[in-house]
């Protein structure tokens, strides 16, 4: 998917919501556990109930790997289902990978070719040659961790490096890499005041924003400081939507939660762009 | 496996070699491609030929994920084969994972419980709560990236943070985390002169050292500056051993290469410890 196609979808759906498919067998409705592939059935129901309200789905690979081969099969079925039924949806493999060059190429092949995701999240610690192999794929997107939403973000990401926080150094340096136009960045909503500074470094890039809702971040604050002329934000919600109910009505309740967020987003878009 | 059991094995085998099982279908002998699971058959042959010369095997997960579900099955069969046939071998899932707390727990479950690896590599960028869930597993080991062997290591890892390079900050901070005695660190052999400084911060920890051989690092230099009283090093070699031949004699030639390294290690151990 091209960036323009993503922007078009945001305008059509009046939504920049990303639904995180972080499926934990201990949290999904009990009645699904009797089915052959509870994880896929859960995802399928969530997708069927929310696809018109969201522009993106983001399975976190950890939740699938935890169930071994079965989990990997559920992941494959989930991405295939999205790509077949809703090819307009921007898919994110939240994998936070990164390794030396030839090894990163294997990861890129895994997520972009074998699984056909539109994008994958990567970690920056190993530098340029660990990220560039991902950037080489046309119309695929590499979403690099910049400033994450967790407490540990303050351990290293905000350390002062020659007068500038490390995450700013990461943002700035990444712009010099080959095919850097294929980069997006993870910036946590819990740090809304940081968005002003971040937008000075990467004004045009899409930012994937976790941490709204469950982790305490505010949608309006993030939009105030982080939005650009193409919206430029994907706001992720996982637990707040998919686990809003663990009864037989889970998909319906998930839809209601997604709708609330979409309506808030529609209002923000209409105020900002006067549409 | 306990750290003491690993040390005992190093003494028994007079080896601190780790063989990297980074299996690329384009590089393995052609005759294996006709078999049902070429990746597992390749690993099995390498393991059968080298298990008495090495104390550790390290499959890099990227090479398995690149083949999707099939690859994940090959990884499962490989780790099961090692654990059943050679339970004395220290196994490393080279996965370089790391995510927010509850998600890192899922990764830990995947590698320590579902796949039964002794250890897993992790990336430090997301800080304390992204690593501690791995450290909570008893007799399991978490090998954190400190200073990697690739060129990109100089992009961020060696940046000056308050008068100290970032990787030193990472080493120092990690020692304050809960169950930090379960930490080991990745330090590239291509930077042998850095080992002196690193040993001042983590004198007792095991260091997993990639980059000897193919990437140009010197075994004797690494040992000179990096060895501690328990050896404290695992020297990884992947391509130099497993792809030494791509003919039908590949396992035999891999053994010959592993033997060369083991003999060099035996000499270093006997000089250092006068045994």
Automatic annotation (TrEMBL), chains A, B:
It catalyses: orotidine 5'-phosphate + H(+) = UMP + CO2. Pathway: Pyrimidine metabolism; UMP biosynthesis via de novo pathway; UMP from orotate: step 2/2. Keywords: Decarboxylase, Lyase, Pyrimidine biosynthesis. Gene3D superfamilies: Aldolase class I. It holds the Pfam family OMPdecase. One of its GO terms (molecular function) is orotidine-5'-phosphate decarboxylase activity. SUPFAM superfamilies: Ribulose-phoshate binding barrel. GO terms for biological process: 'de novo' pyrimidine nucleobase biosynthetic process; 'de novo' UMP biosynthetic process. It comes from the Bacteria. Residues 16-254 form the Orotidine 5'-phosphate decarboxylase domain. InterPro entries: Aldolase_TIM, OMPdecase_type-2, OMPdeCOase_dom, RibuloseP-bd_barrel. The active site is at 96 (proton donor). Its EC number is 4.1.1.23. Belongs to the OMP decarboxylase family. Type 2 subfamily. NCBIfam families: pyrF_sub2. This is Orotidine 5'-phosphate decarboxylase. It comes from Flavobacterium laiguense. The gene is pyrF.
